[in-house]
Design a protein that fits this description.
By secondary structure, the chain is α/β, with parallel strands linked by helices. It has helices at about 1-10, 35-40, 70-75, 80-90, 120-130, 155-175, and strands at about 10-15, 50-55, 65-70, 95-100, 135-145. It contains six helices and five strands, in the order αβαββααβαβα. A five-stranded parallel β-sheet has the order 3-2-1-4-5. Helix 4 (about 80-90) crosses helix 5 (about 120-130) and helix 5 (about 120-130) packs parallel to helix 6 (about 155-175).
């Protein structure tokens, strides 16, 4: 995300996760997976006001002002409605998509170190991503896949397919001349 900021300026973050990862890292003194969204906004790499945290199922500090779509609320929305909220928040900003597999319910992605029940299915998530076409996606990643917790390898399969979905969003932007 820092490299993307160097090229594009402040970026909007679309953060699929069950956790907000918004703990204060004390200006880089404490760096771990629970601090990144706070730290990137505090340093100016991410514009939290144009960013969305999606499928959140925990309650953490939100001092940077991220837009949050809690999983319990998205259950009453169609995937295109979730995507519309993300699009509205981001506007025309360059967008980095980070996807933590624990954003999906552990029934579908058991291979993660921090599972939280109550999330969406893989199919629902993929439909949200499909409805993000046209968003100015300039980068992305998949995190928190822990194969040792999933002997059936369904988590790795879901992560691979979702990575492909993010790559397709980026490629379509390039073909449309947005990047």
């Amino acid at each position: 995300m820092r490299a993307a900021k160097e090229k594009y300026g402040r970026i909007a973050l679309v953060h699929f996760d069950s956790h907000q990862d918004s703990l204060d890292g004390e200006n880089g003194k404490e760096i771990f997976h629970g601090t990144f969204s706070n730290d990137l906004a505090a340093e100016g790499s991410v514009d939290a006001s144009r960013s969305t945290q999606v499928f959140i199922r925990t309650d953490m500090p939100n001092e940077q002002g991220y837009n949050i779509l809690y999983a319990k609320d998205t259950f009453y929305m169609q995937p295109r409605e979730v995507a519309e909220k993300i699009r509205h928040n981001a506007g025309d900003a360059p967008v980095y998509v980070t996807f933590d597999v624990d954003g999906i319910d552990p029934a579908y992605t058991p291979g993660t170190g921090t599972p939280v029940p109550g999330g969406p299915s893989t199919a629902y998530v993929r439909e949200v991503l499909r409805n993000l076409e046209g968003l100015n996606v300039i980068g992305g990643d998949i995190v928190e896949v822990s194969p040792q917790y999933d002997s059936g390898e369904v988590t790795a399969l879901a992560a691979g397919v979702i990575a492909g979905d993010i790559i397709q969003l980026m490629a379509r932007n390039r073909l449309a001349g947005k990047q």
